[in-house]
Amino acid sequence: MATFISGGCKNGKSYFAQRVAKAYGAPLYYVATMIPHDDEDDARILRHRADRAGWGFETLECGRDVLACLERADARGSFLIDSATALLSNEMFAPDGFHAGAPDKVAAALVEFVRRAPNTVVVSDYIYSDAAVYDEWTLAYRRGLARVDRALAQACDCVCEAVAGQIIVYKGALP
After folding, report:
1. DSSP label at 37?
2. Which residue range forms the structural domain that includes residue 9?
């Protein structure tokens, strides 16, 4: 059963995702998609590692080409992909330049991942409710993430949102 979890920053998405992935059973894989760029990113990664210490997750570092993780893991296991947000950023704003087709590539890869490894939890950040005016790059990214999120919501059995530490289920049921 695949689960998609969206929500704002620091609303409990990752912790909740760990619980859902654990409920799916072992082996447990944490697909770490963030490629750190500064001290804040490094601190966030350390916090996430500490948060999942003792849970039994094997970490698979995969900042791009998420399907490659399945070559290093048992597809019958439970996967937590954290996050679609970072994965899209890595693919869209790659070292070799801007890739406008990244949202479609990432959406297709994540949907295929869920198809191949059905016990997958995918985390994404909800970045759509403010009223700020953004530059063209940020607007393209926000629109792209919306496409990725819609594809995941359609492909997953359960769709949830983390809001102020509470989980709202919009589709399906939690394990």
Report:
1. -
2. 3-171
Taking alpha carbons only, the member of 17, 139, 98, 46 closest to residue 147 is 139
- Write the pLDDT tens digit of every residue in 127-144: 988 878 889 999 999 999
Beta-carbon contacts of residue 100 (< 8 Å; ≥ 6 apart): 92, 140
Q: Return d(Cα 46, Cα 3) in angstroms, integer.
A: 25
CATH of residue 65: 3.40.50.300
Alpha-carbon gap, residue 30 to 38, rounded angstroms: 22
User: CA 93, CA 42: separation in Å to the nearest integer?
Assistant: 19
This prediction's pTM: 0.93
Rounded distance between C-alpha atoms, residue 113 and residue 136, angstroms: 30
Total tally of structural domains belonging to the chain: 1
